[in-house]
Amino acid sequence: MGLYEAILEKMAEIDMDLVVNGFFTLAGAVLGSAITVFSRQGKIYMSMSETKISFSQDKGFRTPGPEGGYQYLHPNGDTISIDCRIDIINSSMNTASIRNLGIEFRNGLKKVWVFQFGTETNIIDNSKESLKAVNIYPKELKSYHIFTGGISGIDKTAILKCNYINLIYMNEKGKPKRINVYTGEMSKLERND
Fold first, then answer.
1. N or C: less crowded end of the chain, CB within 10 Å?
2. 92-121 tens-digit pLDDT
3. Residue 173: which of 94, 114, 113 has the closest Cα?
4. Which of 155, 143, 53, 145 lies closest to 90, judged by CA?
5. Could you give the percent of the chain with pLDDT greater than 90?
6. Nearest Cα to 99, choosing from 116, 79, 74?
7. pTM higher than 0.70, yes or no?
8. Do the beta carbons of residue 134 and residue 96 sit within 8 Å?
9. Phi, psi (rounded to 5 degrees) for 91
10. Interatomic CA distance for residues 38 and 43, integer angstroms
11. Residue 119 to residues 50, 51, 67, 133, 134: CA-CA distances in angstroms?
12. CB neighbour list of residue 164: distance below 8 Å, 6 or more residues apart
């Protein structure tokens, strides 16, 4: 008996149902693991809408003047106020964490000004939630109406030359992320009332 006949005889003894069931069990386990891995992957989506920026002049501290009346000390130049709605969506099956959420103004590739939201940021229609650390549950949408108040020490001319607004944050792995939320002229966002 040759080698070929011996292989055919051994194959006849193998229970093919057992082999097929084992193959499908292994394939099901691999497919289930792949589905679990891919369902956990998702993205953080952010958008900014109803955006209005306004500028004013920081005259400094009002104090009594030497000849009566008042004078202003330590002026800080231009101030900016930002009023906007930020929506954050977690499309993954895991809770996502974002830290140090902020707004970045860019003129092309040049970063002009960054404002980090903090505990002093006024979230108008939410409870006392802080934007320094936000946890978003799976498939959850969080929406914030934000008003920053007058932030001084900015250059109005440089801000109006910007053509990009990005939302920036640190993800749960500590990596900085940037999402473009506006492209265009800043003067279109300026509140004129």
1. C
2. 888 888 898 899 999 999 999 998 887 666
3. 94
4. 143
5. 25
6. 116
7. no
8. no
9. -90, 0
10. 12
11. 22, 20, 41, 10, 12
12. 105, 106, 107, 108, 180, 182, 183
Which residue bears the tokens 């891995």?
A: 37
Cα 128 to Cα 146: distance, rounded to the nearest angstrom: 12
d(CA 87, CA 107): 24
- Digit-coded pLDDT (tens) for 13-29: 666 666 667 677 877 77
**128 phi and psi angles, rounded to 5 deg:** -75, 40
The length of the chain is: 193
